[in-house]
Design brief:
single chain; 7-stranded mixed sheet; alpha/beta; 7 strands; binds S-adenosylmethionine; globular
Length: 260
């Protein structure tokens, strides 16, 4: 596990990963292997609540999406549901010059699905770009908003990911990271049974691939707590930090504004 090799790097560590590069490669391979069934599995396993989370996140950035001529990046966009939610929100706000919305992911198979879903869906459809979130092909300060839904947790180095988000954001630009959490109390106990036992079993049967749905609960367990994550965002150059739990903390939205 990469933490054993370099205790200062904190990030996703799928089975067999030895370092940051092999962890990234394993994550890409894993998502590519489940791309054909990713949407179906997402909706089944989350009882469709994922749609509400994407919409709620997009809505929370209305103030930016209404501004003319803004540039938005949805990182680790997968098959594009968060990107489409932002796009729909932006189009409904109807600014004079609609935002340029880009979805980026390093799995070609996921992007192909996103592109296919996007045909004819919105006034100004998102654009898709194959890119690694740890090495983005954009100039400093290019975007006004960067989001990531359920993707950030899979980065092989969270601090490097946050620094890269900060780099491509304009001063005063905003970052929104939607990801899973670990609810407490009785709800948390029930949820853990579902998430650690039921979900991996159903996911494995429906996808026909074992690894990814065992990796999912393990990756959530490894992910920093909200306090730690907000501390890491602070260290990476963000202020006005917040974490808003969604659905009892099963998921939650981290927000921050890039220091001027
Ligand atoms: C769980 S999916 C989330 C997809 C989508 N955002 C959603 O909400 O359904 C995680 C995605 O992150 C992508 N990903 C993980 N690490 C990445 C990296 N370093 N660079 C780009 N994409 C990455 C994977 O390829 C995968 O498509």
């Amino acid at each position: 596990m990469n933490q054993e090799l370099n205790p200062r790097i904190v990030g996703a560590s799928p089975a067999g990963a030895r370092d940051r590069d092999s962890a990234s490669a394993a994550v890409r391979e894993m998502f590519t292997s489940i791309a054909p069934r990713y949407d179906l599995l997402n909706h089944v396993l989350s009882f469709n609540i994922d749609r509400l989370w994407w919409r709620r996140t997009a809505r929370s950035f209305d103030a930016i999406l209404k501004r003319p001529n803004v540039r938005v990046l949805d990182l680790c966009c997968g098959t594009g549901d968060m990107t489409f939610a932002l796009s729909r929100r932006a189009n409904s706000a109807a600014p004079q010059i609609p935002p340029q919305i880009l979805g980026a992911d390093f799995s070609h198979a996921m992007l192909q699905r996103a592109a296919a879903k996007g045909k004819g869906t919105t006034l100004r459809p998102p654009q898709w770009i194959e890119a690694d979130a740890l090495q983005l092909p954009f100039p400093d300060g290019y975007f006004h908003l960067v989001t990531s839904a359920f993707g950030f947790r899979n980065l092989a180095d969270y601090d490097a990911g946050l620094r890269e988000i900060a780099r491509v954001l304009a001063p005063g630009g905003e970052c929104g990271i939607l990801d899973f959490g670990e609810p407490g109390g009785l709800i948390g106990q029930c949820y853990r049974v579902y998430f650690k036992k039921v979900l991996p079993a159903i996911g494995t049967v429906l996808s026909g691939v074992r690894g990814p749905y065992a990796y999912l609960p393990a990756s959530v367990e490894r992910f920093p707590s909200p306090d730690e994550m907000l501390g890491r965002m602070h260290q990476s150059g963000f202020r006005e930090l917040s974490w808003t739990p969604y659905t009892f903390g099963v998921a939650g939205l981290y927000r921050g504004v890039k220091n001027a």
